[in-house]
Amino acid sequence: MNKYHVFHRTPYVPRINTDDIQCLDDDYVHVAILHCPSIDKAFELTNSIDFAWWNNVEIEWYKEPTRSTSVGDVIVCDGGRFTGAFIVESVGFRKLKQKEVINCERLEKIDNG
Asked: Is residue 20 part of a domain?
């Protein structure tokens, strides 16, 4: 199991263009810590599908109020093969480069190569 930290962009911006995103401290709120096998599963577990996502047993901690994880949000894998910060895109995830998180104290400690 890997440990994941989920950061929601605030305020939420629907249909955000993630190509030239800059992850600034004021733009993101740490909303969850969970343990699961993959980033895909972390995304699924932080979406309210059949019930509120914070009721999933894999959730170690969450912050209220919250919403489902969406495009523009960031999922950080803390260990394992895919360590790093990943932005949620309209299809899949993209690993953030260090220059994209340089102004975000919470994310810049992650080695993104």
From this structure: yes
Query: Residue 94 falls within a domain, yes or no?
Result: yes
CA distances from 69 to 36, 42, 72, 106 (A): 15, 9, 9, 18
pLDDT, tens digit, for every residue of 52-81?
A: 999 999 999 999 989 999 998 999 998 777
The whole model's pTM is what? 0.85
| Residue 28: strand pairing partners | 9
Whether residue 112 lies inside any domain: the answer is no
52 domain residue, yes or no? yes
Query: Alpha-carbon distance 39 to 14, whole Å?
Result: 21
Range of the domain at 85: 2-100
Strand order in the sheet with 2-9: 59-62, 28-36, 2-9, 74-78, 84-88, 93-95
